[in-house]
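Severity: low
Component: inverse-folding endpoint
Summary: output formatting inconsistent between runs
Steps to reproduce: submit the following structure tokens with default settings.
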């Protein structure tokens, strides 16, 4: 029996190591410069010049898996608009700021924010698998975010001292940029706090680098007493190809509750057709369309904004076309 068991354990370890190598290789291989992006997608020189200027303040970063879904030569493609730096990013308007959601005011201790009763948000990393051009935390002071287990202790201590909390939200950056061992350790420490019942994780990785959904990650989601809720972030049905669908299916099959949040973006998904297609794709994957967010008014994102009146029209149209469970909250 021992002779049979030992090799199978080694094989599993090697398999998991290969899985980790795949998604981390995707990060290392991501496109980081406007020049390379324009070359791969055959974009006009004018777009490249504007992208170079705008990326000077908020760097371009996009994995090749996502870029492969975008046809060359189409600068108006809804997936490209989410990641292409545009000249409009250097403009701003009234009501746009560097902290549009009040993160600074909500800070309890380094990396820990609380805006609502019963739940607190832990910013565990500043790293993301993609730099969305509408990112509301593009100016967040990530240098102050705790890095590693020792640095997380003050935030975890605050959570443990407040028994009015029953939910911890992991955010960033993207919490799934943490390696599996570190994510597992953090999850286990949170699970040791008796009054915490739920762990919510907001992530863009399943739609950016679907290989991130490893067996070790799935184990972490289900190995503690916590009810785990994963909020994926998908804005357009064209983001959902076969690898993304498979990654989401693995999450759902693990027993994890999976919801989706989208941001309403001009030129990306501000049509009934785009939103209806997305909601149908999500429901077919057993993912509940949870929120359709109006844009958080961060400096540099004004060109993405959709009027509130138009947003309400879109939701009304979705209600007439979709079953209630498939219509997100605005």
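Observed output (run 2 of 3):
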């Amino acid at each position: 029996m021992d002779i049979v068991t030992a090799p199978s354990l080694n094989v599993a370890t090697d398999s998991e190591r290969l899985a980790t190598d795949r998604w981390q290789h995707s990060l290392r291989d991501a496109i980081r410069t406007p020049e390379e992006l324009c070359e791969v997608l055959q974009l006009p020189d004018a777009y490249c010049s504007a992208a170079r200027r705008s990326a000077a303040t908020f760097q371009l970063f996009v994995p090749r898996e996502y870029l492969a879904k975008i046809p060359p030569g189409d600068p108006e493609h809804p997936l490209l608009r989410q990641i292409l730096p545009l000249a409009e990013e250097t403009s701003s308007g009234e009501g746009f700021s560097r902290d549009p959601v009040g993160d600074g005011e909500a800070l309890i201790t380094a990396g820990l924010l609380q805006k609502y009763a019963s739940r607190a948000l832990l910013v565990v990393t500043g790293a993301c698998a993609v730099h969305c051009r509408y990112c509301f935390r593009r100016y967040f002071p990530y240098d102050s975010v705790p890095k590693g287990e020792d640095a997380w202790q003050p935030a975890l201590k605050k959570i443990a001292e407040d028994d009015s909390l029953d939910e911890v939200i992991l955010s960033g950056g993207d919490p799934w940029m943490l390696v599996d061992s570190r994510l597992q350790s953090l999850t286990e420490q949170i699970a040791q706090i008796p009054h915490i019942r739920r762990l919510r994780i907001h992530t863009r990785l399943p739609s950016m680098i679907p290989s991130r959904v490893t067996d070790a990650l799935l184990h972490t989601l289900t190995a503690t007493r916590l009810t785990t809720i994963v909020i994926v972030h998908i804005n357009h049905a064209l983001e959902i190809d076969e690898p993304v669908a498979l990654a989401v299916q693995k999450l759902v099959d693990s027993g994890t509750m999976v919801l989706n949040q989208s941001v309403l973006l001009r030129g990306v998904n501000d049509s009934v057709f785009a939103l209806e297609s997305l909601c149908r794709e999500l429901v077919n994957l057993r993912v509940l369309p949870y929120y359709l967010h109006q844009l958080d008014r961060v400096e540099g994102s004004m060109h993405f904004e959709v009027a509130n009146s138009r947003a309400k029209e879109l939701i009304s149209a979705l209600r007439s076309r979709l079953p209630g469970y498939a219509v997100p909250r605005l």
